Amino acid sequence: MSTNKSTIPFSRDTLEQVLKRRFFFAPSFEIYGGVSGLYDFGPPGCALQANVVDTWRKHFILEEDMLEVDCTMLTPHEVFKTSGHVDKFADWMCKDLKTGEIFRADHLVEEVLEARLKGDKAARGEATKEVEEDEDKKKRKKKVKEIKNIKLPDEEVAEYENVLAQIDGFSGPQLGELIKKYNIVNPGTGGPLEPPIEFNLMFDTAIGPSGQMKGYLRPETAQGQFLNFSKLLDFNNEKMPFASASIGKSFRNEISPRAGLLRVREFLMAEIEHFVDPEDKSHPRFDEVKDVKLSFLPKDVQVAGSNKLVETTIGEAVKSGMVDNETLGYFIARIYSFLIKIGVDSTRLRFRQHMANEMAHYAADCWDAELQTSHGWIECVGCADRSAYDLSVHSARTNEKLVVRQQLPEPVTVEKFEVEIQKKKFGPKFRKNAGTVEKWLLERTQCELEDLAKELKDTGKISFKIASIPDETIELDTEFINIEKVTKVEHVREFTPNVIEPSFGIGRIIYSVFEHSFWSRPEDKDRSVLSLPPLVAPTKVLLVPLSSHNDLQPIVKKLSAKLRKEQIPFKVDDSSASIGKRYARNDELGTPFGITIDFDSVKDESVTLRERDSTKQVRGSFEDIVAAVREITYNGVSWSNGTAKLTPFDSQSGDA
Amino acid sequence: MSTNKSTIPFSRDTLEQVLKRRFFFAPSFEIYGGVSGLYDFGPPGCALQANVVDTWRKHFILEEDMLEVDCTMLTPHEVFKTSGHVDKFADWMCKDLKTGEIFRADHLVEEVLEARLKGDKAARGEATKEVEEDEDKKKRKKKVKEIKNIKLPDEEVAEYENVLAQIDGFSGPQLGELIKKYNIVNPGTGGPLEPPIEFNLMFDTAIGPSGQMKGYLRPETAQGQFLNFSKLLDFNNEKMPFASASIGKSFRNEISPRAGLLRVREFLMAEIEHFVDPEDKSHPRFDEVKDVKLSFLPKDVQVAGSNKLVETTIGEAVKSGMVDNETLGYFIARIYSFLIKIGVDSTRLRFRQHMANEMAHYAADCWDAELQTSHGWIECVGCADRSAYDLSVHSARTNEKLVVRQQLPEPVTVEKFEVEIQKKKFGPKFRKNAGTVEKWLLERTQCELEDLAKELKDTGKISFKIASIPDETIELDTEFINIEKVTKVEHVREFTPNVIEPSFGIGRIIYSVFEHSFWSRPEDKDRSVLSLPPLVAPTKVLLVPLSSHNDLQPIVKKLSAKLRKEQIPFKVDDSSASIGKRYARNDELGTPFGITIDFDSVKDESVTLRERDSTKQVRGSFEDIVAAVREITYNGVSWSNGTAKLTPFDSQSGDA
């Protein structure tokens, strides 16, 4: 069931009307005026979402024997303080003190400069190169009232274009400077704006009746998986590598959400945390995927200012070093096959590598699966190698070891610096700080110990400062401490695993699938079709009695019972609308199959099966038709193979 | 697979150890010290939960063609203000200003009085009638330090007992009086307590960057369904009755959560809102369930101070008027069959009716499915007839009609009072209040209009006050207004549907199923078994190669591939532990089937199938064994029928 089969150009407005009319989703609390960034899924959207999640669970969790966990969304402050979210999970915003309006700083700069460039082009009499598909930006730009046909100096045009190319990379203060430099004001009123300030995107609340325990709604599901690492490793009988997975809602308090399902404040995520030996990131099943051909947009191409895709196999991509390691590559290929399975158009899917300045300092490599929509290329799945960062920070904060201990095949002899402390003398000397000083010493790295050992040997003492005892320089001589290189035989290797994290935004994926599967019948642009794959379509079968004649009712009942027993989701439409109208309604709902019950059905229990995209029909017995539906829907059989034994049928009633 | 098959008494401690050891669930953020009332589900708990939800979806949504929706958890203040949650969704708490401790007032009174009664019994030399199963209360009472063997006056004993019998019915001020009257203090320190104050159980947060829009995390999923009523009715082609349903997390900021999964701050709910004509609450499928026999605890029995169950069919219960109507009765029966299907012990399930003082004023009738556990009888499913309350209040607040309009079979002539307003004169007279006065008049009921019409006729004018214009008495004469009885022909009937609401607490149900299915093998109390029904068991099959010999590996691989293709969740245990140990581990995980691969399997691809509860074994081919597993697990076939064609097998390795 391919898309883009229509000669009628895609219209986002038409799609949005269909999605609203069929209640795939709608703004939450609409009768109260709505809240931006919050959406409810109606029955077909909800069923589609459940089917996508079910497919995800089978494709990843069951297929790979992952350990699924369900962790709470409410999270105490301390956890996100450690993970870095309290300090860094923020966007920059500018306030207009007069109107109370709030703007996201990077979006504001982008919109204003783009509007000025457009005005410049118009003034120069050049045709604007409007990217046909980016209707969203068009709408946004309309809001910028200051679009005036003013010609800009050539240098300024070049400057603006340079800024726009790097717009994702600016810090808040840098954005503030740009706003000042280019005299950017409230586009609606022309009024002045305050300098950008940071706005943390986590929703906060208080846990418990005292109001003392600050908590957040998680902005991702990952932390719950990291915190349960030791329990999961134990559950897995200490075997490595292994993956955990989690499907659940996350929350981000976006500054000014727009673009429908693409930027929302509450959303469904599916995340995998694959824990792997940092010294061996090979994957046992990599061979199964190595020939999968993908479209890559690597970082060096982007840095060179280009968008040209590299088409190659994932095997080659790993071999050449473009993709960091086999495990990362394996997941990239599996992400691809999942997306195709649920209806993504492969020609509108690319894997974009993060550039150095986008990536967290600890990450080894990161690729986003981006889907092309009328809003541009949208990041729908992230796939990052997060190294040992998360486990390390939580371990350091809680003093709980989050490590793997592996019996070495043979004992190894190692030389290492060790620190020996005269505990009894620490108490009298440091009193309440004794524990802190001891802990500081025991947490030094081998390099640091080497330096300290040298200092101790050379000067007979060491001196240092500890952040939590700011007013004191600590001095220790050999009466208190000894640091020496010792030789040890080790039987066990202890290491903190690295984490490969594929992270899926289900709502964004679903929206992209809507765009990729939506088209209108060439013979009638008002007849829209949502060509969802049968596997994820909300309803698989529409049962249509040809008329409301009583004779047909027993057959409808019997066939309903059979479909219910086979657990094939179906709907009956016995309304008085014409057959064509009833099918048209269900084409919009993405229902892949229609079964028509007519007066011949009463005689011999034969029925007609209609395929949504081609409107082809075949005829056969109840049993054979239901078997064909099952094979095509759940076992990936094609329409022509699935219906090969059935009789082609020329509609007796037409489809119009 | 029946429970209670062991002669070894149930021990909650043993169950809790098993659930923890096998990571069914664990306190969230445990390495950070945990947060009370928050739990994470580990892999088996998560799979069990997913299977319970999947069964629920099929049992209710698919079977009854309900409209599933997925609404946001974040909810603006106004919605819960209207629903009554902002004002009434609260518990009463007492603070100890010295220690900062906070007590839930009703629990405190209950614990202290119970402790005193116990001390009294001891002083009188009477044996305390300890309810064997209520270990939780025992633990709580231990915390009450003031248990002293002091004999109380007989009247005081009677008073305490009377208070305890009504403990769920006291208001906050009443609890405050009891605390004063009985001199109840902080049981730990003896220090004084502040009078009870209300604590709202909703978590609050701010939506958007301005911090101006107050929001809450929903404490139930229902409101989202009510707010979407008109869209759902439209989606259902205006047909009535119909039901919506929702599965998702809800949040309650409990004052002092305890009792594990039974009282938590974040929990999974599954709720149905069945919209029905208030004048016809019959149910078309009631006949299918009318003979289901249930245990009822009706309100009059409770009011009479008894716990004696009434055993009767749901058909009789509705006929006698004990259960208000057929639709409510239908859902009670369907709740019963769902609970049995997922492993609830029918002898420990009762339906308790709410007494008049427990029920909201608008509710017509309400029954809770209660499950008996070591914590006592626990409310796990509520089933209430909420009348037209919710739709009415949201409609009144938003001025959006939330009604059904039905074409009458024949036009009817009605007499009704109507108010006629001289709009043009309202503006000059009332200025900015004109709209408010007009709205007030148009919203009067027929009874109110009748009174006003009389006043107007008798005195030539009407006068009234409006809450939102407090300082003014409004007077209107016939120049401004006319109120008269008119005769009208109506073709359409307009009504606000009533709502029947079955509401499931999934975590509580799962915990009760744990207790109902847990037992220890009589021959060895350390060998525990979770007799979960195969349908919901986390893993269906354990694959056990008899030894780690290389010859067995290809068979393990082949069988794994087959099970994966059939989508039967399974695990391989090829560890070096003995067969018996490996099975014991999986008995604790509730895995219903074991397949042993031995050296005969290499020769003829035959394998042995073991049943968890009986440890019976049969032998057959791959195909036949997998077919048997599928039939028993998913099609409700019994072990003896499912394995009738297979060969009984005497263990060659024993189960020990």
Automatic annotation (TrEMBL), chains A, B:
Its main location: cytoplasm. One of its GO terms (biological process) is mitochondrial glycyl-tRNA aminoacylation. The keyword Aminoacyl-tRNA synthetase applies. Residues 216-522 form the Aminoacyl-transfer RNA synthetases class-II family profile domain. Its EC number is 6.1.1.14. One of its GO terms (molecular function) is ATP binding. CDD domains: GlyRS-like_core, GlyRS_anticodon. GO terms for cellular component: mitochondrion. Catalyzes the ATP-dependent ligation of glycine to the 3'-end of its cognate tRNA, via the formation of an aminoacyl-adenylate intermediate (Gly-AMP). Also produces diadenosine tetraphosphate (Ap4A), a universal pleiotropic signaling molecule needed for cell regulation pathways, by direct condensation of 2 ATPs. Thereby, may play a special role in Ap4A homeostasis. This is glycine--tRNA ligase. It comes from Hyphopichia burtonii NRRL Y-1933.
